[in-house]
Amino acid sequence: MTTTENKTLDINQIKEYLPHRYPLLLVDRVLDYELGKRITAIKNVTVNEEFFNGHFPHKPVMPGVLMIEAMAQTAAILSFMTMDVKPDENSVVYFVGIDGARFKRPVEPGDQLKMDVEILRVARGIWKYKAVASVDGKVAVEAELMCTIRAAGDASQPAGQ
């Protein structure tokens, strides 16, 4: 008999891998992952999100930068799990670059943003990912993300130093 490993994470498990907290924790559940390769997670978008008060009161739309951030947080979870490391209060994940970002559809209250992130490569402390976020199977945003993981005291040092 073969046993299958549970490939999901609930919010409490996610908080073990991300230093982010409310209101900037943008991953609600991990649905599936393959260490060193890929991850799928969701963000449930509700009308109670703080950013909807100003973006925009007459037509609430999730800001594009927060969709990118949700994909980056998903990528960070995969990276920490792949390294078999849980970050401490000194761990910080920084963007190094965002390439080819394309926004295809708005994300509104009631939507479930599904993030699919794949590791393209890891070199000299820089992780590069292909990230796509969709709602109901329709792409909302896609980009290539580059991030590095540092101790807070090493933030000014370029990658590879």
UniProtKB/TrEMBL annotation:
The annotated active site, in chain numbering, is 55
Q: What class of enzyme is it?
A: lyase
Task: Provide the E.C. number(s) assigned to this enzyme.
Answer: 4.2.1.59
Query: What domain of life is recorded for the organism?
Result: Bacteria
Its localization reads: Cytoplasm
Gene Ontology biological process: fatty acid biosynthetic process; lipid A biosynthetic process
Q: Which keywords annotate this record?
A: Cytoplasm, Lipid A biosynthesis, Lipid biosynthesis, Lipid metabolism, Lyase
GO terms for molecular function, please? (3R)-hydroxyacyl-[acyl-carrier-protein] dehydratase activity
Q: What reaction does this enzyme carry out catalytically? A: a (3R)-hydroxyacyl-[ACP] = a (2E)-enoyl-[ACP] + H2O
Q: What does this protein do?
A: Involved in unsaturated fatty acids biosynthesis. Catalyzes the dehydration of short chain beta-hydroxyacyl-ACPs and long chain saturated and unsaturated beta-hydroxyacyl-ACPs.
Q: Give the protein's recorded name.
A: 3-hydroxyacyl-[acyl-carrier-protein] dehydratase FabZ
